[in-house]
Amino acid sequence: MKSVAKRFSKQRRHRSITTPSRKAAQAASGHMADNVRQAGAVMQVIRPVGREAAAKKYDILSAMMAHAMAGDQNRQRLVMRLMSLITARYNWQRNELAIGQREIARLWCVDERTVKRDMARLRQLGWIEVKRQGARGRVAILGLNLERIMLDTRAEWINIGTDFVERLEPDQAPTPNTVVPFRRPNVAASDLWGQICVKLADEDPATFEAWFANLKQGTVEEGCLELLSPSRFHATYLRTHLLSRLKTVARRVDPGIAVVRISVV
Question: pTM of the predicted model, to two decimals?
Fold first, then answer.
């Protein structure tokens, strides 16, 4: 009985002790969870489904229209051509655009060379993505990156009206942050990652502060940009939710970047 009681007492003492590494892990996970709440409260991607699907579709098209009208003739033409594909052939529920280059050329009243050029520009912007390559007489299936479209058009929402901005970005009460954040690395604005940071901060400051500001640039080899994350959870979240955004902005800064890899320090 004495040995059992002694062993039980040791187990209780062991459970009550929190090691420094465990404390650090708990602090890191708490910080990351707080970042998830903050990032989710800032940029809500419109999903054109449900009872208000029709209104959401009009909001997306209105944002694209405002962005086009605020640009030069090249931007206006490119965005309007994409809008014509959306209104004529896009499947909103399945996020699929299945139409051949010949049909696009007929709709746009241009030749197929112009179609190839403009579709390549839209892919480079990150507005459209290839979901399935065309093969054996089948046309490719494309999808829209609605998050990227809304991020790129955000600056022009105010041209439609304050009510439009408030509808797309409803005010939310800030979540109190009681967790000590990671130490932010020094980034030179002249570096590749520094230039990417400037663009990321401009388009979505809150998400930049929560997720991108703590990254450091690793190696840049053969079109692959390596970014170093302070924790495994942080790296996993970036790979799952924000890697597409990182790739798009990285390619806009340096078209030679083909891959962005997230590693843990």
Answer: 0.66
